[in-house]
Structure formats: structure tokens, C-alpha cells
Design brief:
With 769 residues, this protein is α/β, with parallel strands linked by helices. The chain has a seven-stranded mixed sheet with strand order 5-4-18-17-16-6-7, with helices on one face. The protein has a six-stranded mixed sheet with strand order 26-28-27-32-25-29. A hairpin with an 8-residue loop joins strand 1 and strand 2 (27-33). Helix 2 packs across helix 19 (490-500) and helix 4 crosses helix 13 (317-330). It is globular, with a radius of gyration of 25 Å.
Length: 769
């Protein structure tokens, strides 16, 4: 268990909370300890009752308290002094004054859209909500987006297009273990979210089958019954080829397609243009393996497709995900228990972060910023006129690309784009060209080191707030410690800046007060949190959205309708909830006592409470009765394969793909400060096949330069047969010479604006380091 010296006072008893890292939001507790009479610290202890991880934690979660130490974090504001050009300690008053004046002066001189805001997928729902409100109300700028755009925006766009609603998983993670077959596309769960691997292990123990699609033979692929290793950038062709075989072999669920979908003839025609031999030529996956995959997927009574960054971080990511959704729809594997399509969100609050206002085109409740009714509703909650709200702004990479030009000042919270953004050397130059940069973070990241002002902010264990995990389960992080002297919360920062910019009210520092306003702002929207309270989250170990607040029940033409607290009628577009759908771990169980509780445990239930006229129980399973489209039907996407934005050629003959490793997380800003994690993963590397290494003359551990049209990254060779001979892999957690994102391609998906992190053309060179 991890120990951190307790310079700041903990609670006396263990505090239930959640891991600060990925979208699983694994349950854990923090317990105060005082070893050998030394200073009080905290250790992580298991929370076996939380259903997502059932006590299991990876090394990152287990060692998370290490970053709470004042030895590795920021504990006082820093201001860049004109005379020395260095960041030096300052008071909070001076630092906040400098930021307020820097943002205001830029707006006065160049217009409000010359000021930008860049958020993070690790911010709580309350922070994301307050940051979006601050940008649009206080600064009046349209230029806000967040690094979650780099996470699952392509899947979100495909979700919206097919189902009319975007939630990572439309079912609880526990359902994965009880389906018959899972196709896992572009995910290495064993390293990126290890506690989730147990659900796949339980699937196989129950007789289910696992198909993994990945150009590398990863730890996850080693668990598969069938591993398909397509050429990077060809996942779209692979999905179309599988659908072609479904049609050719007579496996289409015609009744489901007729009753619950639209657009099938066009999607069918597109798939039939991708016959198996063509798909083999494009992807490198042999036709017999394609046929085997279809047999396994369709042969099971229930099946799922789960995607992650592999197919999504492409310039055609939205269409690629749409093709995998087509496979589910055509086979009737959607809109029923234990089947469907889901996306494995990456960042801790990648889901909630885009639901409540950080994203360039959205308002709280997943409302559209260009919808007049949405603007009117949110403006009323905020106490401003709808016309005062700016319109949609630039997407994340486009915002970063505009720095120092159209956008001349930037407030950045909880992100490290100098490491995490594509074409990172260019992004670094754009950050350096800003007139003014302010960063709020827990550590002095590579991006923070460039700032004019840096603010030290509280961490996960030091403040209370909500997160929305990959299932759409809203969970409560509880403060176990008080922040060390000199550290403030992000909500305090926004409140202090707002007051200096003329908004004395509207930005409280209390997280629950912010959440209460978020509930009102989200009421009636697609992501309706109005029926969720801190008390409910604590009592139920999380509540699934949508969860409208109900004050009365009436009988309408479509059956029972709910009237929400603000007087509006529930749209009903997210599916009615019955006892089965309200029970994440109770699908197809006979035990009513288990079925009543959201996670199948005997105890206080929410499933039956909603049907008796009580609070809405939340919506663990979406789309069981209808999809969230206007006509209630899921929409097929008529998509065809197209090549990556950058294909190999004589000058750049090899493909690069990137990803994560077990012991590090995202840009590494926090995990690279933990000794145990650094020992396990000390730096970047280039994974390449022995045949490619032989042609290059590379040996294990020798420095290899990976060169693209955008730059050069150098890291030691790691020679392995677990990767295709035409492909190399680099993890992206490090800055410096081994920064993988120096090389990656910022080509954007036309719908989601997702950069093409997962495939670009490179050449390899032997390097001296």
C-alpha cells in the first residue's frame, strides 16, 4: 500500500473514494496511517463492494497517494518575472491579479475570441461545468475545448449518429462477463485498465468467446480466442468485410432490422462492395480468420463490440466506429440485454467532461450550443440572456494550432498538450508564441513550465466532486485530506478569477453547490442529471444517467410520462427504465431482491422505486425499448473504406502506431513522479519486428530514430514478434527526444475533429541517441 507523508491533515476514518486515473473510476478507500510514530499519511485500501473493480487496483491506483506528497507537487503560485524570465514564487493575490489582467487585456485589445480556455478529461463534473460557464459567461469566448477531444470523440459522434445519444457503454461493465462473445477493437485492457480484464476472464470462464482486433499481440490479445491483426488504419475495411460475410452467409436479423432500424439498404450496399478477398488485401487479415470471426460473433446468443482508441483515433474514426455499430445492428446485437456496441472511454472523466460544457459545441446536459432552446434553458440557469452566449468554437487541435495567432491568451486546466497533442513540436511552438499563458495543475508539467503564471491546485484526495465513468455511472470522490498550505481548488481559482473580472456571484467554491446548479442546467437534456444528488450517489454507489428529477407522474399517449422538476416533460428518448434495466448486475436473473438493487446486491433498491412513483432509478441500460432518435430507430451508417490520411511511400515506408503502457498514464505528468512506476516503465521505446530490425541493422536496446514529415523521435529498440513487420509502436507518455507525438499526424476526422494519432507514415534510422 502506498504511503505519503502527511503534511496536511487527513480524516480519522477510512474515506470511500475513487482512483484518480482512468475511466473505470475504481473504488478505493483512503485510510490514515502513522508508521513508527512518524507523520500521518494515507494508504489505499480495497473497496470490494464497488462493482466495477470489486477491490482490484492496478499499480497506478495503488500508488496514487505518492503524488500527494509536497516533494513532487506544486505548493505555491509561480509567476514569470520580466527581469529574470524565470518562474518564481508569488502570492495568490498577485498570481490571480496577473491572470485576470492578462485575460482581460487580451480581450480588450483583440476581442473576446482572442482568449482561449483548454480543459481536461480528468476534471470533475463540477469543474468542467464551472470552466465552461466561466469561458462563456465571464470571458464571453467561444474558444474552449478540452483534451477529451483526443479520447473518444469519434465514438461519441458515431453514437450520436446511430443512436441519437452518446454514452460510452449503454450497459454496465458487469454485462460483459455475461454475454456470449466480445469483439474488442483497438484496446489493450490488460495494460490500460487492468481491473476491467477480470470481466473478460469471467466471460471466458463462463464459456464465452473473445476476439481481439489489434495490430500487436498485446497482453490482452494473448487472452483472445481469436486475434485479428490488421494493418493500422484499416479497421473500417475489416468491419465492412465482416458485415459483407454476415449478409452473404444469411446471418442478418431481418426482423430486428425491419422493426428497429433505418438506412439498411444503403449500408448493405456499401458492405457488399467489400468482399473478403479485397478486405484481406487491404487489412492483411486472412479470409479464413474473417469467416471464423463472423461464426463466433453470430453463433453466440448475445454478442458485443467494444472499441477504444485504436479505431477511433483516425481521420476516419467516426465512420470506422459506425461500421462496427452496423455489424451490431445488422445481427440484432443492440437494444437488448447483454448485447450491443460500447466504447471504452479512456480518461477519468472523459464522459462527464464533454457532457457539461468543456466541449467547443456543447452546453451542460449534452445540449447543443447552436440549439436556441438549449441556449435559452442554460442562459436562464446562468442568469444571462441567450444572445450573450457565444457560438461553437474550435476543436482541441484547431484551438492549439491557433495559439499565438487568432488566440493570443490561454487559460489551461488539467492538461499537458506539449506531450499529449499530435504534431507536438508545432504545438509547443504555438504555446511559446502566446502573449499570455496561465496553467492550473497539481505538478509543474512540461506545459506549465512555459506559462506566465502557474497555480497549484488540489488533487483528487483533497476535494470532493463527481465523476462519470465509462458506464455513465456518476460516482462521488470524497475528500480524505485537506490541501497543503498554499494550494487551492480549481473551483476556488475560477471563483477568484470571476470576481476579479466582474462576477462576484455565480462561481461558488463548494462542489455540492456547483453540482446543484449543474442538475438544474442539465434538466431535460440528453445527459439529464437532475435526479442525481450527492446523497443518492453515496447511498447507491453511483447513479446512471439519464436520471431526471420526477415530481409527478401522468398517463400519456405513450404510457407513463414523467414531469421533471423544472416543469418540462421528459423526452423519453433515452429509453424507459424497468426493473431489469435498472439493475446493472441483474439481467436475466430471477432473484427479485437482487434485481431491485443497481448492482445486484441485496439491499436498498432503486429499480423498483421508480416504478412505484419514487425517484427515477437511473438508466443502467439504454435503448431496450427504443433508441434516442426522433423515430426511435437506430440509424445505419452507409460508409466505405478509405485510406489513412498518410500512407507509406518510398521515403516513409513504415507505419507508426502509438499507445499506452501499464505503469504510466496519459502524458505522464503525474505517474512519472512515482518511483515505483518509473522503475517499471522508465522511458519510451520503439517496438519493431525482427525482420524490420534486421533490414535496419538494429539491435535490442540501440537507439532508433522514428522520423515523419513532422519531426523525429528517438528511443531504444524493443524487438518483438508481437507486432506486424510493417509497423512500429511507441508509447506516448514522455517528453524530450522520445516524445512520440512529435511524429504523429494531426489530420482530423471531418465529423469528430479527432486527430489521427493511431497511424502515420515514418522511416526508421539508426541513431546515436
Amino acid at each position: 500500500m502506498a504511503y505519503v507523508p502527511g503534511e496536511h491533515s487527513p480524516a480519522s476514518d477510512p474515506v470511500d473514494t475513487h482512483c484518480p486515473y482512468c475511466s473505470l473510476q475504481c473504488g478505493m478507500a483512503l485510510r490514515p496511517v502513522a508508521p513508527d510514530g512518524g507523520p500521518v499519511g494515507v494508504e489505499v485500501v480495497e473497496r470490494t463492494a464497488f462493482p466495477v473493480n470489486r477491490g482490484a487496483l492496478c499499480g497506478k491506483g495503488r500508488t496514487a497517494p505518492a503524488v500527494l506528497s509536497t516533494r513532487v507537487r506544486l505548493t505555491e503560485p509561480l509567476v514569470r518575472r520580466p527581469d529574470s524570465g524565470r518562474l518564481e514564487p508569488a502570492t495568490w493575490e498577485e498570481a490571480l491579479d496577473r491572470i485576470a489582467e492578462g485575460l482581460a487585456a487580451t480581450g480588450r485589445a483583440y476581442g473576446r475570441d482572442a482568449v482561449g480556455v483548454f480543459g481536461g478529461g480528468g476534471l470533475t463534473n463540477e469543474k468542467a461545468y464551472a470552466l465552461g460557464k466561466f469561458a462563456r459567461v465571464v470571458l464571453g469566448t467561444s474558444q474552449i475545448d478540452y483534451n477529451g477531444r483526443f479520447c473518444m470523440s469519434s465514438a461519441a459522434a458515431a453514437h450520436q449518429r446511430a443512436f441519437g445519444l452518446d454514452r460510452g457503454l449503454p450497459f454496465p461493465l458487469a454485462d460483459v462477463a455475461r454475454t456470449g462473445c466480445v469483439v474488442l477493437v483497438g484496446s489493450n485492457l490488460a495494460e490500460t485498465m487492468p481491473p476491467a480484464l477480470r470481466h473478460l476472464t469471467e466471460l471466458k470462464e463462463a464459456g464465452g468467446r473473445l476476439i481481439v482486433v489489434d495490430p500487436r499481440r498485446t497482453r490482452t490479445a494473448e487472452q483472445a480466442d481469436l486475434h485479428l491483426a490488421p494493418r493500422p488504419g484499416t479497421d473500417l475495411a475489416l468491419a465492412l468485410g465482416l458485415l459483407h460475410l454476415v449478409v452473404a452467409e444469411g446471418r442478418v436479423d431481418e426482423e430486428f432490422v425491419e422493426r428497429r432500424t433505418s438506412g439498411w439498404p444503403e449500408a448493405r450496399a456499401a458492405a457488399m462492395a467489400h468482399w473478403p478477398e479485397l478486405v484481406e488485401r487491404i487489412t492483411g487479415v486472412p479470409v479464413p480468420e474473417l469467416r471464423k470471426a463472423v461464426t463466433m460473433f453470430c453463433g453466440a446468443e448475445n454478442s458485443m463490440v467494444l472499441t477504444a482508441r485504436g479505431p477511433e483515433q483516425q481521420s476516419k474514426g467516426t465512420d470506422t466506429v459506425g461500421a462496427w455499430i452496423n455489424l451490431c445492428l445488422a445481427t440484432g446485437r443492440a437494444g437488448r440485454p447483454l448485447s450491443g456496441y460500447g466504447c471504452l472511454t479512456g480518461q477519468g472523466n472523459g464522459q462527464g467532461g464533454r457532457e457539461h460544457g468543456q466541449k467547443a459545441d456543447q452546453l451542460p446536459g449534452y445540449r447543443k450550443l447552436d440549439d436556441p432552446a438549449a441556449r435559452a434553458h442554460v442562459a436562464a440557469v446562468w442568469g444571462v440572456e441567450p444572445d450573450a452566449l457565444p457560438g461553437p468554437g474550435r476543436s482541441a487541435y484547431e484551438l492549439l494550432d491557433a495559439l499565438g495567432q487568432d488566440v493570443r491568451a490561454l487559460l489551461l486546466m488539467g492538461s499537458n498538450p506539449l506531450v499529449s497533442a499530435p504534431r507536438a513540436a508545432h504545438v509547443e511552438s504555438r504555446l511559446r508564441s502566446l502573449d499570455f499563458l496561465a496553467v492550473a495543475d497539481v505538478v509543474l508539467s512540461e506545459t506549465a513550465a512555459l506559462a506566465d503564471v502557474v497555480l497549484p491546485v488540489a488533487q483528487w484526495a483533497e476535494e470532493t466532486g463527481t465523476m462519470t465513468n465509462l458506464e455513465g455511472r456518476v460516482v462521488l470522490r470524497r475528500a480524505a485530506l485537506t490541501p497543503p498550505p498554499g494550494v487551492r481548488t480549481d473551483l476556488q481559482v475560477l471563483g477568484g478569477l470571476a470576481a476579479r473580472l466582474g462576477w462576484e456571484k455565480g462561481f461558488p467554491a463548494d462542489a455540492e453547490e456547483v453540482f446543484e446548479e449543474l442538475r438544474r442546467a442539465s434538466a431535460g437534456g440528453p445527459a439529464d442529471y437532475s435526479g442525481i444528488t450527492y446523497r443518492r450517489i453515496a447511498e447507491e454507489d453511483g447513479v446512471f444517467w439519464p436520471c431526471p428529477e420526477r415530481t409527478e407522474r401522468t398517463e400519456g399517449a405513450m404510457g407513463t410520462e414523467e414531469t421533471e422538476a423544472d416543469g418540462s416533460e421528459s423526452t423519453g428518448r433515452a429509453d424507459s427504465v424497468d426493473a431489469e434495466s435498472a439493475d446493472p448486475d441483474g439481467a436475466e436473473r430471477a432473484d427479485d431482491a437482487e434485481r431491485a438493487h443497481p448492482d445486484g446486491a441485496k439491499g436498498t433498491g432503486s429499480g423498483s422505486a421508480g416504478r412505484a412513483g419514487g425517484p427515477h432509478p437511473g438508466t443502467p441500460r439504454l435503448f431496450l425499448d427504443r433508441f434516442a432518435t426522433d423515430d426511435g430507430r437506430a440509424r445505419f451508417a452507409p460508409v466505405g473504406h478509405r485510406p489513412a490520411a498518410e500512407e507509406p511511400d518510398a521515403e516513409y515506408p513504415v507505419l507508426l502506431t502509438t499507445g499506452r503502457v501499464l505503469a504510466q498514464y496519459q502524458s505522464g505528468a503525474q505517474t512519472r513522479r512515482v518511483a515505483e512506476l518509473n522503475e517499471a516503465a522508465p522511458g519510451p521505446y520503439v517496438q519493431l519486428h525482427p525482420r524490420l530490425a534486421e533490414r535496419l541493422g538494429a539491435v535490442e536496446g540501440a537507439p532508433i530514430a522514428v522520423v515523419s514529415r513532422r519531426g523525429r523521435a528517438v528511443a531504444p529498440a524493443r524487438i518483438s514478434r508481437d507486432i506486424r513487420p510493417d509497423t512500429v509502436f511507441m508509447p506516448f507518455h514522455w517528453a524530450g527526444p522520445g516524445r512520440a507525438n512529435t511524429v504523429t499526424n494531426p489530420a482530423l476526422d471531418p465529423v469528430s475533429r479527432m486527430p489521427e494519432f493511431k497511424v502515420c507514415a515514418v522511416r526508421l534510422e539508426l541513431s546515436e541517441g
